[in-house]
Amino acid sequence: MSQHSRPLYTNINSTQTVRQGLEEYYVVNPNVTDPRKLSPEFAKILLAHDVSHVVYGCDTDMYDELKILPLTWWTSNYRFRDHLRTLKDPIISPAIKLMYDDLVKERGVIWLYTSIFFVLPQLLPELISMWRNSRQRERFVPFLDFEPLLDRSLLEIRQEFDLLPFFNQLS
Q1: Long-range contacts: 16-19, Cβ < 8 Å, 24+?
Q2: How confident is the model at residue 4 (pLDDT cuts 50, 70, 90)?
Q3: Which of 56, 55, 68 lies closest to 20 in space, CA to CA?
Q4: What is the pTM (predicted TM-score) of this model?
Q5: Residues 116, 66 contacting (CB under 8 angstroms)
Q6: Stretch 46-62: mean pLDDT
Q7: What's the CA gap between 99 and 79, in Å, rounded?
C-alpha cells in the first residue's frame, strides 16, 4: 500500500460505511486473508481486527499494525486481558496465528522483526500520547460485536466514540 495513495477509510472525514471501508480494505490488501471466507467462529477475531483497521483509519504498514492493538485496547471494549485470553483460546488462537502468517508470507520473517525494531522507537511517543488521551473514556467501540456498526458512517462512529482526537496521531 505504501506505493499507492492511502485508502479512503483512512481519511478522518470519511463518510464511507464500515462495510464499504472493509470492502476497500480487502481490495487494497489482497494478501490479507478475508475472514468472511472462513468459518464464523474462527473468523470472528480476524474480522473484528479488520473492522478496527477501518474504524481507526489504520493502514497495514508496520507503523499502523503496531499501533492498532494498543489503540484497540484503550478505546474499545476489547482489553489487553481479553487479548491474553484470546491467545489461549483453542478456537481463536489459530486465527491470530493466521494474521501473523499473512504478514510473514507477504514480507518475510526478517522484514517483520527488522520493521518492528525500527518502527517501535518512532511510534513510542505517539503511543504514550494515545494512552494519555484515552484515560478518561466513557464510551468504548464494540470490538467483537461490531455488526451494528457495519452500515454506519465512519465519521459518525468516530465522532460518537470520540476517536477524532486520535487522528492527529493516526493520519
Answers
A1: 16/153, 16/154, 17/150, 17/151, 17/152, 17/153, 17/154, 18/51, 18/54, 18/55, 18/146, 18/149, 18/150, 18/151, 18/152, 18/154, 18/157, 19/150, 19/151
A2: low
A3: 55
A4: 0.86
A5: yes
A6: 94
A7: 19
CA dist 38 and 40 (Å) reads 6
The total number of residues shown for the chain amounts to: 171
DSSP for 56-113, written as a single string: TT--SSHHHHHHHHHHHHHHBS--HHHHHHHHH-TTTHHHHHHHHHHHHHHH-HHHHH
Between CA 61 and CA 1 the distance in angstroms is 7
100/113: higher pLDDT: 113
Mean pLDDT of 107-134: 91
**Residue 101 β-bridge partners:** none
| pLDDT of 168 | 57
Residue found under cell 500500500: 1
Percent pLDDT > 90 in the chain is 58
Q: What's the pLDDT at 86?
A: 85
- Closest by CA to 33, choosing from 112, 120, 115, 98, is 98
Tell me: pLDDT of 3 over 50: no
Q: What does DSSP assign to residue 89?
A: -
Helices (H) and strands (E) in the chain, counts: 8, 0
